[in-house]
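S1.2 Input.
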Amino acid sequence: MLRIAVFGLGSMGYGMAQSALRGGHRVWGIDIDRARMTAFENEGGETHPLERKHLDAAIVVVLNATQTETVLFGPDGIVPQMRAGAVVLGCATAPPDFARNMAQRCADHQVLYLDAPISGGAAKAANGQLSIMASGSPTAFAAARPILDVIAATVFELGDDAGVGAAMKAVNQLLAGVHIAAMAEALTFGMTQGIAPARFLDVISKCAGTSWMLENRAPHIIDGDYTPLSSVNIWPKDLGIVLNIAASAGFDAPITQAALTQYHKAIAMGLGHEDDAAIAKVYAGQAGLDLPERAG
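S1.3 Output.
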């Protein structure tokens, strides 16, 4: 049984905290939204004050690199207060250089760092079935193993150096962001040809053009439900990271750039806080299409 703090109780972090708790660990859930912390405490999470020197691990599931650095080394940063040999799992999408920097700064305090970006969505997070693209020292992997065993179905061990996991997550986010935009474009294109969104999903999900993102996000459009499990606002950040990495490598990524343009259009329409499937509204608006509305 480890003593674990999960920083960031959004749709992914909350599920990871639940999975760690269900795995028999003592878990503190930390979030700027006190209601999220209260909800987790009501499920059996720890309620007494957190003494960081007693932590075995911290899982950081915040929005970006800046927030991660604040949690770890900000004015109330946890790393200088953690015991030697404790481990940090950095799960936010961030540039590889950032992950390497965090690993070195943690090492300066004798704290281990596992570069551990996550994939799979909120449901898999809650069920302990995430995929984790991890890299770090064998010692960091060993310290994190009891956590990885309960929060993930698949752990890809990508090397002994932090940064490789972040690079692989960037590859994944390139595909994920493009696939969501392509799904929205294809679904609304089908509508111009008289193909209802529900029929689109029924047929294409069984054909070569399908993708995990298509099968996961198209139902949101069909149901008219844009409750943000993953918001539009995430994609300018993540695809921006992809394009910055590409630029540093002298690599042209025009398809990624085209998808990013559509996300920017969605934000300009006021859709930033809606589910990322709402990018379909960009296409629907341009074509004068009426997307399905939420029942009730």
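S1.4 Remarks. The chain has twelve helices and eight strands.
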